[in-house]
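Budget justification note: compute hours in this period were largely spent on complex prediction jobs such as the one shown. Inputs:
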Amino acid sequence: MTPLTQNLFVIFITSCFIFNIFYFLPLTARPKNLHLRKTYAMQHQDLVQISETHGSPIYVYDAHAMEAQYNRLTNAFSAVPQLRINYAVKALSNLSVLKWMHHLGAGLDTVSIQEVQLGLEAGVPPKEIIFTPNGVSLSEIEEVATLGVQINIDNLSVLEQFGTAHPTVPVCIRINPHIMAGGNANISVGHIDSKFGISIHQMPHVLRIVENTSMNINGVHMHTGSDILDIDVFLHAAEILFDTARQFKDLEFLDFGSGFKVPYKPGDNETNIEELGEKLSVRFNAFCADYGKELVLAFEPGKFLVSQAGYFLTSVNSVKQTTSTVFAQVNSGFNHLIRPMLYGAQHRIENISNPEGRERFYSVVGYICETDTFANNRKIAEISDGDVLCFHNAGAYCFTMASNYNSRYRPAEVLWHNGESHLIRQAESFDDLVKNQVVMAFDAVEV
Ligand SMILES: Cc1ncc(COP(=O)(O)O)c(C=O)c1O
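Corresponding output:
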């Protein structure tokens, strides 16, 4: 190249980037999920700003962190021709979050008719919603079916009653593969003593019901637990699902549930999604070839999509030195974040008011009238009264598990999107505490 052509080449390449010329390439010519727009990852300062604007306690969610996880999962399974991600609404059910998930391409996994209604309210078509209840009434399942939502049944008796009454409605079957998996007993749901799913040993009975009712089984599903680290557990369970699926001739999808473990602190272990994607895709595609039909591979992650996208901001009411411990007492409790008490979850806690401060040991506790310890003997940058503490991984199962215990209000929620914070739920007020109460007038009652 002459110096002149070299210069022209450099100018051409530079202008390509400046004017985003690559953006106009057809999608197939671009690397998948490469967004050539500004990235808007949340910064530390944004959290401080949000706590100043809206006060605390408050939940903050980063829409772009959810998007990154969604893309990570779809990329990991890019070798599967038909992939379906149904976001588990129970993890975080704010309407704006449901809309965002649908905007990204996800359907919804629901467990109650109210979650279905929230999904519909958010604009998600019924065909993109799956209903996976446990222990609900037959009438609730029938009501959801009339909305056009995919039904998933995990109980023999319900299967028989539903199939007899509605033989033309397609139904998915949730199996129990008898696998002990999950980070905690409360979230291990695929073992032999679990109330979930139809035992794989009851398949002959299932097949009899299907034959007698002529019902249409269009999917097979399992979910063995949450916080599963070992990908061999997923792969082993997948083989059980394949064995079950072979017994049904008209399937459209196989649903592998969820349970991916996410990291809770720097250096923490997580499910290796990329390796799982590579290995499971090969097995799934081979199964489809054998089955003679290209099926949809479905997942229904909650935690994986929203856990790390969430922050819970609280303010320190007081730093209390006792004979043995230094307590940092925050303006919240297990009424807002119950995971540490329920599952022993260790949420990372950061002092965002003094991030560079010298680290000291604290027990971080709430204001509830019972012991509500968020963290014991935790190293945190020096805390003073009024500082804002940020709890990480507060996207999944935090707001949705919040309550009014001690007659406290549930906090506001903010969604960070395109470099701006948006209030997506107002904090409750006294009116919310009393609005459904019917107050008796004792004065009028004669004793
Ligand atoms: C049936 C089912 N699907 C999906 C999920 C979501 O699991 P996770 O949040 O671990 O992704 C759950 C969690 O309880 C579940 O019970």
